[in-house]
Amino acid sequence: MKFYNCMLLLSLVLCVSAQNWFTDAGAFVRDAYRGAEDMWRAYSDMREANYQNADKYFHARGNYDAAQRGPGGKWAAEVISDAREGWQGGISGRGAEDTRQDQEANAWGRSGGDPNRYRPEGLPSKY
Question: Potential cystine with 70: which of 24, 31, 47, 102 (Cβ 3.0-4.6 Å)?
């Protein structure tokens, strides 16, 4: 819940200078919230699938889905991805190369690239 409250506050701050700031801020916050949901869905699907070499696909898919929501979704995807990779690179010990590859997949998805570029063969079509 704290995360969503922080997103709300930061979203409002970022949108204050917009021409119709109230409407734009509301849309940004809505998009950010839904983008965070998209990121969570991709993470949950990745955990459920538990499929070898599918990590990059789910990174790209979560970022792609979130970015399709608009500027707020794209912002949420970037914040969540950077936070996760910061944790993973600093604490989990998976290494700089894995973090670099994850960030590449994140950026690919956020920029509108097809997440299937990273889809491993044999991953169930449910995902």
Answer: 31
Name the one residue in this structure whose structure tokens are 């670099």.
100
The tokens describing 80, both together, are: 């969540």
Distances in Å between the alpha carbon of 17 and those of 6, 14, 62, 87? 19, 7, 29, 32
**Pair of tokens at residue 108:** 């690919």
The tokens of 54 are what? 């599918």
68-91 pLDDT, tens digit each: 999 999 999 999 999 988 777 666
- Which are the contacts of 11, defined by CB distance < 8 A and separation ≥ 6? 25, 28, 29, 32, 72, 75
Task: Convert the pLDDT of each residue in 17-32 to its tens digit.
Answer: 556 766 788 899 999 9
Which pTM value belongs to this model?
0.80
Q: Which two tokens stand for residue 99?
A: 């973090």
53, two tokens: 């070499």
d(Cα 77, Cα 66) in Å, to the nearest integer? 6
Query: Which DSSP category does 70 fall into?
Result: -
Residue 71 half-sphere exposure toward CB, CA atoms < 13 A: 11
